[in-house]
Each structure stands twice: as C-alpha cells, then as structure tokens.
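Chapter summary example.
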Amino acid sequence: MTDQVDNHETTRTRDRYQRISQVYDTVEILPERRYISWRERLWSLVRGPDILEVGVGTGKNFAFYTKGVQVTGVDLTPGMLDRARKRAAILNIDVTLLYGDAQNLEFSDSSFDSVVATFVFCSVSDPIFGLKELGRVIKPDGHIILVEHVRSDKPVVGGLMDILNPVVVRVTGANINRRTVENVNRSGLMIDRVENLGMGDIFKLIIARRKK
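The structure predicted for these 212 residues follows.
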C-alpha cells in the first residue's frame, strides 16, 4: 500500500464507470435477480441511526433501506450519482448523495454507526487504503458490512479468473480476482463473520469492525 491515493488509477476507474453509467442498470438486470436476497440480508444487519453507503452507484440498495435511519451515500462517478438521484426521487427515499472517493472520505473520525458497501471493493484502486478509511469513519462499536465477489480458492476457477481479469476490468471496471477477505484483514479491521452467499466461494458477506 502506498501512503497516498493513486490519482491516475482512481481517475481511470471513475472514467470506466462513467462510460457505462447510462447502461449499467440494464446490463445488470439478470444478475440483479440473484443479488436481491443478498441485499436484503445485508440491510437486515444494518444498525443506525447514522449509516454510510460507500459506492452507492445508481441506488440499487435504496429499496432495502430501513426506516428511521439517516443514510449518506457516496460515489466516485457523477453519472451513477445522477441516476441515483432520479431513483431516490421516484422511490421517495430520504438519502444524502455526495460525490466522494472511498479512499479519501470527507467525514470526521467515528462518524457512522454502520458502513455498507455492495460490490465496491472489486473496483477501488487501492482496496486496503479504502478499507482503512471505512475503519476510520466507523464508530468504535459500529460494524462494516460488505457484500463482495472475490477470487475463488479453487485452483482451476481462481486461475481462470486471473486470466480473464485484465479484460473484465478494462470493460467493466471491476476486478474479478480480488482477495477481499484477506484485504479486510490486511487493512487492520477485525472480521466478525464471513458467509458464503452463492456460486461456491465467490460471493461473500463480510462483517468487520475496528480493532479495540
């Protein structure tokens, strides 16, 4: 990990997602059918009142927000935020939407009771840096709850993911071979629980917190 954000890589990531922002929801229609139950599971674990959603994207989690909490959503891509604002208006969702980078969150230490991200740390240019930021802004007794796809530990599947990753990340912006559970540990967070969600060991729910 470097001691500062790699602005070049971060800009490349933003540009990739900006490019696909207008078609993102359409492309994701089929896989989203599988993700719905995982999003419900994640949000059932969220505790408020102050929630941060990192990588809010086009607002796919809005329908699962729990009542009585204040959610702040940040995203790196203006095009995604534009679509999220339209979705929030249609669904009458009370959410504060801000432009922001997971690697450099503009919030004070210990600001949030829960921090949530779904399919985000496959794309953050320096995931360790970003995860450390989540640890900084979470309250000491709060939890970080992630749904992520990760590199399979199965030799053949994992090897294939490594081979395909350069093409996939160039087209979609997402790395398919990130070792996110290991990255959470490397960032200094403490993992409370990891659950396999589907497709063997690829999709996971990760619950972590700051070390005391």
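To summarize the output: The chain has a mean pLDDT of 94.
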